[in-house]
Prior knowledge:
The protein is α+β, with helices and mostly antiparallel strands.
Amino acid sequence: MPNTMFFSLLLNIGLLVLIATLLTHVPFVRRLLLNSNNPVSGQIALALIFGVISIVSTYTGVRAQGAIVNTRVIGVLAAGLLGGPYAGMGAAIIGGMHRYLFDIGGFTAVSCAVSTFVEGLIGSAFSKRFKQGRLDGTGIFLITAAAEVAQMAIILLISRPFQAALDLVRLIAFPMITMNALGMVVFIRTFNRVFIEEDSVFAGKMRLALRIADQSLPHLRKGLFSTADMESAVQIIYQSISCAAVMITDTRKILAFCGDPKYTDLKTDRILEPILKSIQDKKATTFVSAEKQDPLYSLLKGHTIIAAPLIEHNEPIGSLTIMVKKQWHTSEANVSFADELARLFSTQLELSDLEYQKKLRRKAELRALQSQVNPHFLYNALNTISYVCRENPDRARELILTLSSYYRQTLENDRYMLSLHTELYHVNSYLELEKARFEEKLSVEIHVDEDLDCMVPSFILQPLVENAVRYGADKSGNRFVSIRAVRRAGLAEISVSDHGPGIPPAVLENLQSGTGNGGVGLENVHRRLKSIYGEENGLQAVNTPEGACVYFTVPAEGLPKSDAV
């Protein structure tokens, strides 16, 4: 008889494992099991599912001395551990009531019904600990064994006559405690194994999607506007996954296509229309079959088309469409892969658009700052010429020509970055006007390291030189301006110094703190430098024994990467 019980319990455990495997392939059940905060309807559904498992266990049990040797405890405990307290107690009520009604008046009908309720309580009590991952296989084994020991104790307490109950417990205790405890471990691990496999497949697809997105990133920086970049992106996808064809579209046309030449039908407008229509709901759409009159009919006879929307600012801007060969089973992984890859592409496209807008705003800001400098320079230049007009009209005429030449170059040049030598040429034009005003009282020294011709923001030096000329007079009224550009550790350090009384401490403090009271010229230069080269690379100003010195550093070669458009 014990051998029969062991064999019967083993068959029952095998049946429960089969049921568990089938349940893990039902999307509705998967969602319920993976959701840690199921609503009341979800908890009721889980109670019904595991309650039915308990009923099946009762029906498939084997009779022994007026009792039914079965695996009912597995369904009830699993309901509590996997579904939570409400699901556990619901399954226990269903399983316990059925056990009582199944054998009304039977020797163990009441005791087994009561023990089923107790098992539900035990599973519910350990639910939180289980979901936190604090119960391993050994813990599950011991909890199930304890639940079965409790059932044996309840049989001894309730079932009468006592001697018959004692004989029954001696017969069934060991098989039920050991087999059901082992069966519970296998049952739970069946659920766990299937979810691990699913997570592994999903993780593999996500790794692939991230790798493709990383390789495609350089081609997404220009948005959907570069056909060559879009063609490179679809080629990367096509070479990375097993598919028949890949294409990227905007909301009107196909931007890029990669696939076997025999699938060129996918490039026609009649195919494009249903694909573009499908992305309006902002969800991935799978085309599996179509009517004969449908333009997708010929393609869908042997293939599945997955169209995932590309979203920017919550609006569809195009689609990523992948065509795969049909298989005997439906692969949700392909749909998830296409959808997640489209999401990654959408994020990159949106970031590229934001970066482009940021650069445009930066250019607009620089132009605005330039506009603040130019009128100031014009005022000073005209004021200088007005002084010269009284004494030397010919010299005034030369200065006017110098000024007009300077402004012609300025207006014709719309670049916001210039070579250092071009910038110095503009500064020399300004100094030519100032020398006419101060004559021998203005001395200028310019030193540039040999072969140094870096790029600098346009009109970045003029405000600094203008400040040095205006405020750099020594006690005798002489003005000395030194402009230097030297290499230092891969950078070009550009400085403007004078022999004046120095910069007032309040102006120095305000300039470094960014309060906006560091003087219009200095403040503009400071803001522009930080805007282009970063917050730590603004204008530096110090007072020396000789006078004031302002300086900044720029890359000795090329443009800053963040400003290349």
